[in-house]
Design brief:
- InterPro entries: MnmC-like_methylTransf, SAM-dependent_MTases_sf, tRNA_MNMC2.
- The chain is of the alpha/beta class and about 230 residues long.
- It has one domain: 3-Layer(aba) Sandwich (Rossmann fold).
- Helices cover about 25% and strands about 25% of the residues.
- The chain is built from 6 helices and 10 strands; from the N terminus they run ββαβαβααβββαβαββ.
- The strands form 2 sheets. It has an 8-stranded mixed sheet with strand order 5-6-4-3-7-8-10-9.
- Strand 1 and strand 2 form a beta hairpin.
- Helix 1 packs across helix 2.
- The longest helix is centred in the first third of the chain and has 13 residues.
- Bound molecules: S-adenosylmethionine (SAM).
- The site of S-adenosylmethionine (SAM) has 23 residues, from helix 2.
């Protein structure tokens, strides 16, 4: 488990990762938001590719834990490269300050996209945050996902990106997994960085077909789970 905040490692501290991307330390959970082995690499491998979003003609992404927006920027960069539309719906109950999102994203993929610029401008102003620029709609609800009304049969991709099950167990429960499964469109794919046996069993128990895949840098395996049509 990564070290929590201490006088030497203050919460909000920005961490440079080996692929040149950054992450930060969460004040509330005492854990890094993204992989210390490569935050951008994890976003792309586990979430964008893990859900097939890099091939989808019009992805609809539902994210649990918007965090620092690293997964959102990776997704933005991907849809911009292919010129396809994106509808992104995220939940975040403990928003980090806009300066942290800005500092983590600076110079990174997707950071030049008008949707990212608009997000930084509107962050902390209203809930939900709604960003609409040509081709991209982003909605961030600043609420506990356990209390949210999730749209049924909606998501082509679900990014399950809470903190670790040990520190953030409430987003890895059977009850939430069942609600997330119902938010997936038929053939929609859920991805998560965890490969823990209890996470696999929880997703399978929610009716999803779960498979292990090779992990991102620093991790042997991660998971994807499909809602079969
Ligand atoms: C690992 S970080 C997500 C990193 C993020 N996906 C990114 O790309 O930067 C986990 C996030 O989930 C949020 N979170 C944890 N439990 C939550 C809950 N019950 N409802 C909404 N957000 C939650 C945390 O506040 C944190 O921002």
């Amino acid at each position: 488990m990564p070290p929590g905040p201490s006088p030497d490692r203050p919460a909000g501290e920005i961490i440079l990762t080996p692929d040149g991307s950054r992450t930060a330390l969460s004040a509330r959970f005492g854990e890094a938001y993204g992989s210390r082995h490569g935050a951008a690499a994890q976003a792309r491998h586990v979430f964008v590719e893990g859900t097939g979003t890099h091939r989808h003609p019009a992805p609809r992404v539902l994210e649990v834990g918007f965090g620092l927006g690293v997964n959102f920027r990776a997704t933005l960069a991907e849809v911009a490269r292919r010129g396809v539309p994106l509808d992104y719906l995220a939940y975040e109950f403990d928003p980090a300050p806009a300066e942290v999102l800005r500092a983590v994203g600076e110079g990174g993929e997707g950071a030049e996209h008008p949707a990212w610029t608009a997000l930084l401008k509107g962050w902390g102003q209203a809930s939900p945050l709604l960003v609409q620029v040509p081709g991209v709609t982003l909605t961030v609800h600043f609420t506990d996902v356990r209390e949210a009304d999730l749209p049924p049969d909606w998501a082509s991709a679900l990014y399950l990106d809470g903190f670790s099950p040990a520190r953030n167990p409430e987003v890895w429960t059977p009850a939430l997994a069942e609600r997330l499964a119902r938010a997936l469109a038929p053939e929609g794919l859920l991805a998560t960085y965890s490969a823990a046996g209890h996470v696999r069993r929880t997703l399978a128990g929610a009716g999803l077909k779960v498979e292990k895949r090779p992990g991102p840098p620093g991790k042997r395996e991660c998971l994807r789970a499909v809602r079969e049509a």
